[in-house]
Amino acid sequence: MSSDWKKVWILLPLLLIFMAWFEVTQDRLVDAVDVTIESGFGSSQIGTSLQNAGVIDSKLAFKLLTRVTGKSASLKVGLYHFEGRLSLWDVLKKIERGDVQRFHLTVPEGLRTQDILQLLADKTNTTLKDWRLALEELLPGQEWEGKLLPETYSYSKPLKPVSVLEQMITAQRSIIASLTTDRMDAERLRIIASIIEKETRVDHERVLVSAAIRNRIQIGMPLQMDPTVIYGIWRRDGSFSGNIRRKDLSADTPWNSYTRRGLPPTPICNPGAASLRAAAAPADVSYLYFVADGTGGHAFASTHEEHQENVKKWVRIERKQNRQRDSK
């Protein structure tokens, strides 16, 4: 063999290595595009999806790179966003990291579990059935009400309802675990917090409402709190008109705190962290009563006489507001 051919055979592997290195590290400009990597996709299918989307030039090069580096089994499913100058190596590392697109869902405080599930279905373009089945899987045979923590949560696609709901359940359990004592178990805490959540949205009032609940229970006084009546009607009828009437107060349900003493059998909504904390640590006050004060908050009282004066003030404020509304 001539010396020239020997030089070719020596240089050929170096040339191939250089070409491979160039293919792997050379940047290419990628227009903004999303690519979904489904469960069960191998490196060949992933490479095809990336090439079809214009993220890479060669699906074969992607497949070979994953094989050579031993990363075929570590590529993660999800929805990926690609944009800008990217090399084949950049693309591979992004998928290996699982750097998927994240989406966010905000669940407000005070919703019933049924309403939370419907909200999640609407926000994610999925069905209510999907979410109900997921919650049944997580809480088989258990009461659903009051066990989800309202908060902002993130998720990736393809969406797994079980994963989102598990976050909500775990987040609430974590808070409750830091609050419960020998004197108060988790379910009792949830129930009290759910009433607080429905009675006030003013942060500093939560511990005052909590105190009123505690004080009434201690002396055996009915809670007589309208949200429990409303929830009982909803559980009984599947709906509520929106206007609580005098006859509703005497219509007995297990949740009606006018007709039954003590706490309702279940929470009446899903309380937020602030209400859970207030339920665990009521204020050291003697309040038994509270009524709206016209400012969005409440006037609290320790005696029935004080309460009646506050009620009279509220009635005057309400009448004035109604007159002003009617005159417009």
Protein model, in words:
This protein is mainly α and about 325 residues long. It has three domains: about 20-95, 2-Layer Sandwich (Dna Ligase, domain 1), CATH 3.30.1490; about 105-175; about 185-325, no CATH class. Helix content is about 50%, strand content about 10%. The protein has helices at about 5-25, 45-50, 60-70, 90-95, 115-125, 130-140, 160-180, 185-200, 205-220, 225-235, 245-250, 275-280, 305-325, and strands at about 30-35, 80-85, 105, 150-155, 290, 300. Strands 1-2 form a two-stranded antiparallel sheet. Helix 5 (about 115-125) packs across helix 6 and helix 7 (about 160-180) runs parallel beside helix 12 (about 275-280). The radius of gyration is 31 Å and the shape is elongated. Residues about 5-20 have low confidence and may be disordered.
Short key terms for the protein model shown above:
328 residues, mainly alpha, Dna Ligase, domain 1, 3 domains, two-stranded antiparallel sheet, 13 helices, 6 strands, 11% strand, elongated
Q: Low-confidence spans: pLDDT under 50, at least 5 residues? A: 7-20
Q: Ends: how far apart?
A: 105 Å
Average pLDDT score: 89
Biggest sheet, strands in spatial order? Answer: 1-2
Largest sheet: 2 strands, antiparallel
Q: Helix- and strand-based class?
A: mainly alpha
Number of helices: 13
Question: Over the alpha carbons, how many angstroms does the gyration radius reach?
Answer: 31 Å
Strand content: 5-15%
Supply the number of structural domains.
3
* Oligomerization category of the chains in this entry: single chain
Order of helices and strands: HEHHEHEHHEHHHHHHEEH
- Can you give the helix content as a percent range? 40-55%
Number of strands: 6
